[in-house]
């Protein structure tokens, strides 16, 4: 018997799509899953019979079994990893590994949520609750909500490095400027730093515009092995490297509020891709709150620790969250999959709004998508490239 190991297959993203997003009052989450999946499959040009892997989280008692049944799929490889907003980058890493090893040929990542519509229709009456059992029993009784945890971390960064409210507000202003160019974005009216600062306080130092919006929506991403690329309608976008990391769940166990788990996931992704932050043309970063963007840029290596404030104010800095991000485009819950969709669109030259170009006018060559979950509890980073 030949024991020679098979060479790992290259993995490409060949289909991406959004379901209806923003204000979607008449659809169910299952319907948004199906809509996104159909559109991504159409985008790829492949037949659905090729799909033998499914990754899904956040819906159903037996996710992703219920989603697979609804979509009419019988996958032989599944993943239901749920680590908050970083879920989809972590799932993409798992899917790429499975395809490279020959455990699957084509993996569909799909998500759909009616978070906004559910609140309006009173199908649920509050924001997502993580409960008060386990480690959280030591925090929840004292009003230590998810947003309060991010706010406290932001205050620590401000204290330690002199980061200002105006610099944090600039993140929201830039996101809205990008959204203004995106016809798919939920909020497109320009905003100013003063408008961000003067908004109603949510959790000090975050006013309303420092926080992500709540929307409905869904999206899907299809990854395949290299031998199927020639049958696709679209040019392949290759998975160059991935990384994942979990940090803490109890805030008292977080060693440094100014360092996110992206410091590890990003380093791993770049090492495995064989490139560095300086090679990246566009970055899609999870931005449930403005501080997330700033500190993740530091931790991915785009600027030094403590220099995120001045970096986000630079006019010619790295293009970030080109669709408007969770602060302005859409945020139906675990938004990490939307980062991958936008990164692929940018590399293809198919962005619906702001299309990034290199200095010579050519399309971007490398993009990074970095998701954050919980309250900086988890991170997944994916480096994508055209070559």
From TrEMBL:
Record InterPro entries: Thiolase, Thiolase-like, Thiolase_C_2
Short name of one Pfam family: Thiolase_C_1
CDD domains per UniProt: SCP-x_thiolase
Positions of the Thiolase C-terminal domain: 243-386
UniProt-listed PANTHER family: ACETYL-COA C-ACETYLTRANSFERASE, NON-SPECIFIC LIPID-TRANSFER PROTEIN-LIKE 2
Name by which UniProt lists this protein: Acetyl-CoA acetyltransferase
Organism encoding this protein: Streptomyces exfoliatus
